[in-house]
């Protein structure tokens, strides 16, 4: 991963992150979390049916319908969150500014995960935090993760948090989570000035699809409200779905986001600096190293990591 203080035109097709991050818990620990805490779901004969319902809604880009009851949400989390968690753990571990948030043994790191109700971001963040705790178990550092989602993922967040507190930490109180069941575009959160990191992982397509103007205003709120030195990490599918139609033209989502956050290209007038990016990053599962009852899929995505000026 390379760092950049300004907007970069690099567009690599060969970026990749390792199967296991050097500074995160191992893949086996992450997969075991889901095998054990979701065992009842994985053993349910109804799971395949609910997975197909969710897949159908997502294919039609009916995001709200896909997650409108607990059966669908647990099915999604059991099926797709393990692979997302593995990828996010590797990505967070590989990004020096993100990993660095957890290295101060006396600090409290505050993170907001927008649209992170399925738990992948939470598990990825906690895996880095807990790995660093292994190296310094006497540290007084804390991780506070707030998750805002328009669907009610509270049961999943509680389930995952409880497992990590009991199995990954000597002192469970060092990891705290808060689930906020609100629409981030409808003033669902306001304490942006307290945050060290904001993540929008595979969320921007959904936001732009539902409410384009409100999404742009949300990004502008981040411009005004986040503190200097805060980081913003955005990741999205690296493919044709990541385009927004404006009039008769299609624009990549990342182009629109960069324009709002960085200003017009070449002018450096925005509220943020772009410190790391990839237009096409691969995460590949090593199937020989993990055993899970459902397929864990590779991921290809773009990401942008910004730092507030």
Cα gyration radius (Å): 18 Å
Taking the sheet with the most strands, its summary is: 8 strands, mixed
**What is the succession of H and E elements?**
EHHHHHHEHEHEEHHEEEHEE
Strand order of the largest sheet: 1-9-10-6-5-2-3-4
**Which spans of ≥5 residues are poorly predicted at pLDDT below 50?**
2-12
The CATH architecture name reads: 3-Layer(aba) Sandwich
What do we call the CATH homologous superfamily? Answer: Vaccinia Virus protein VP39
Helicity range: 25-40%
Structural class: alpha/beta
Shape: globular
Number of discrete domains: 1
CATH topology: Rossmann fold
Total strands: 10
Distance between the termini: 21 Å
Approximately what portion of the residues adopt beta-strand conformation? 15-25%
Give the helix tally: 11
InterPro entries: Methyltransf_34
Organism: Candida tenuis (strain ATCC 10573 / BCRC 21748 / CBS 615 / JCM 9827 / NBRC 10315 / NRRL Y-1498 / VKM Y-70) (Yeast)
Protein name: 25S rRNA (Uridine(2843)-N(3))-methyltransferase
Written account of the structure:
InterPro entries: Methyltransf_34 (IPR021463). This is 25S rRNA (Uridine(2843)-N(3))-methyltransferase. This protein has 309 residues and is an alpha/beta fold. The chain has one domain: 3-Layer(aba) Sandwich (Rossmann fold), CATH 3.40.50.150. Helix content is 40%, strand content 22%. The protein has eleven helices and ten strands. It has helices at residues 27-37, 39-42, 47-59, 63-66, 70-94, 96-100, 120-135, 154-167, 204-210, 212-225, 253-262; strands at 15-17, 108-114, 142-149, 175-181, 197-201, 231-237, 243-246, 249-252, 272-283, 299-308. It has an eight-stranded mixed sheet with strand order 1-9-10-6-5-2-3-4, with helices on both faces. The protein has a two-stranded antiparallel ribbon with strand order 7-8. Helix 3 crosses helix 5 and helix 5 crosses helix 7 (120-135). It starts with 14 loop residues before the first strand and ends with a strand. 45% of the residues are buried.
